[in-house]
Amino acid sequence: MTEERLTKATVAECALRLADEEGLEAVTIRRLAKERRVTPMALYWHFKNKDELLLGMVDHALSGVRAAPGSGDPWQKRLRVVFETVVDVMRAHPSLPDLLHSVDKTQTESFTRATNDTLALLTDAGFTLDEGYWVAGYLLNAAMGLVAGQPDCPASIPPEQAGEWRRQRRIQLESLPSDRYPKMVELAASYRQELDLDHYYAFSVDLVIAGVEAMAAARQR
């Protein structure tokens, strides 16, 4: 790689990949320079320090979260698209929750724009500005929770070990007293095969958005 090909976006993308694979603590200017085969000074041209780099990673990760204000679609559909996009970003970047907790995300353009867009949608839905802000925060944390609580192998389990992990989980549930926990024992059968992730996430998005829509509808009544 040459220094001329470096941009803020390519550096941030490389940093996100490194954080996803090895954890946020692995992200340093020196390590990134090694990954990009440039000198550390080449990276300082784009990010003055690690704090700026972390903010740049957030800004890059959330750059696609938009409410499409000119689409003409009802607020319900546009809010769903925003939420689905955030969930997809969380799935693509498992390091993002830790990253969001480690920086002041309100200093980034992407997060501020996404929050403003979401507030506009929720205002259209009939929520006050304060209530809209609470809902927006709930949606962000819900996206994190859906990915972190994915009911299958944790992201830390290598793919080649997934089958054994599911077998152990099934045995654990099957060993519970069936007279006390009959449904938990029955649930063990679901670990005989890989989770249908598309169904899980579609169901979860429906569940979360349905709650917001129901509250908005109740207010209008």
Distance between the termini: 60 Å
State Rg: 21 Å
Measured by DSSP, the beta-strand proportion falls in under 5%
Tell how many strands the DSSP assignment holds.
Answer: 0
Helix content: 55-70%
Individual helix count: 11
Structural class comes to mainly alpha
Largest sheet, in brief, is: none
Question: Helix-strand pattern, N to C?
Answer: HHHHHHHHHHH
How many domains comprise the coordinates?
Answer: 3
Unreliable stretches, pLDDT < 50, 5 or more residues?
none
> Overall pLDDT, averaged?
90
- Indicate the overall shape: flat
Describe the structure.
- By secondary structure, the chain is an all-alpha fold.
- The chain folds into three domains: 3-61, Arc Repressor Mutant, subunit A, CATH 1.10.10.60; 75-151 and 196-220; 161-192, no CATH class.
- Helices cover 65% and strands 0% of the residues.
- The protein has helices spanning 8-22, 29-36, 40-44, 50-61, 75-92, 96-102, 109-124, 129-148, 162-174, 182-187, 197-220.
- The longest helix has 24 residues, at 197-220.
- The radius of gyration is 21 Å and the shape is flat.
- The mean pLDDT is 90.
